């Protein structure tokens, strides 16, 4: 695969990922290579690369040779996502605080927090602003393996945030303020504790709501030719 095809595949993956996260492409929808290629005016090769990337991120699953199915986000997915966030985000916050104490550039982190507090009708939605702030914490942590692992979580975390928009409250952003303040002050243990509390509070508030909105487990697809019981 050449660089041009790789770049095109990533652009297409980004466009499809955003449409899945916003619900413009619904869970369970079929994404055929030919249909997507025709809609976007591109060849099938970068579309195939895009679908493979989205499958590796858990947004789609292979159905047959020429199509993929958009993953149906389940309550089990949400539980696993909170489990992983609890392991990664406090660790990232503590590393970021240590690097800030050592003189690392915190400009982008501060900017992300400021953007989050200045909201206009045409601004990015809360799920994006929230995700951008967490990404800057991971970036400041500058742990290469952690960055790779967080990359697999970012999209799904935004998807989760979109499913619970009522949690975009001042209280949540106050928690972000506290986490960033601890990081900027170089207080690694405090940053760890605040990030852990932030994730756990999100779990406690989100899971009961999601239990009413999501299937507990994936609904198995019927094999071709089978009939309902």
UniProtKB/TrEMBL annotation:
Highest taxon above the source species: Bacteria
PANTHER family: GLUCONATE OPERON TRANSCRIPTIONAL REPRESSOR, TRANSCRIPTIONAL REGULATOR, GNTR FAMILY
Record Gene3D superfamilies: GntR ligand-binding domain-like (1.20.120.530), Winged helix-like DNA-binding domain superfamily/Winged helix DNA-binding domain (1.10.10.10)
Protein name: GntR family transcriptional regulator
Pfam families to which the protein is assigned, alphabetical: FCD (PF07729), GntR (PF00392)
Ranges of residues in domain HTH gntR-type: 6-73
PROSITE patterns hit by this protein: HTH_GNTR
UniProt xrefs under SUPFAM superfamilies: GntR ligand-binding domain-like, Winged helix' DNA-binding domain
InterPro entries: GntR_C, TF_FadR/GntR_C, Tscrpt_reg_HTH_GntR, WH-like_DNA-bd_sf, WH_DNA-bd_sf
């Amino acid at each position: 695969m050449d660089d041009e095809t790789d770049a095109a595949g990533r652009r297409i993956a980004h466009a499809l990922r955003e449409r899945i996260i916003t619900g413009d492409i619904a869970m369970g929808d079929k994404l055929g290579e030919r249909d997507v290629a025709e809609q976007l005016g591109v060849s099938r090769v970068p579309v195939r690369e895009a679908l493979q990337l989205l499958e590796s991120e858990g947004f789609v699953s292979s159905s047959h040779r020429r199509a993929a199915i958009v993953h149906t986000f389940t309550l089990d997915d949400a539980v696993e996502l909170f489990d992983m966030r609890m392991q990664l985000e406090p660790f990232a916050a503590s590393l970021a605080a240590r690097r800030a104490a050592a003189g690392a550039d915190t400009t982008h982190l501060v900017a992300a927090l400021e953007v989050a507090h200045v909201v206009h009708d045409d601004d990015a939605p809360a799920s994006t602003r929230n995700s951008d702030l967490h990404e800057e914490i991971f970036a400041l942590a500058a742990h290469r393996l952690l960055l790779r692992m967080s990359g697999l979580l970012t999209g799904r975390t935004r998807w989760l945030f979109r499913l619970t928009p009522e949690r975009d409250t001042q209280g949540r952003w106050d928690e972000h303020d506290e986490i960033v303040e601890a990081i900027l002050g170089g207080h690694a243990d405090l940053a760890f504790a605040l990030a852990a509390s932030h994730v756990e509070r999100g779990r406690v508030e989100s899971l009961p709501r999601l239990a009413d909105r999501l299937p507990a487990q994936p609904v198995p697809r019927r094999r071709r030719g089978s009939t309902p019981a």
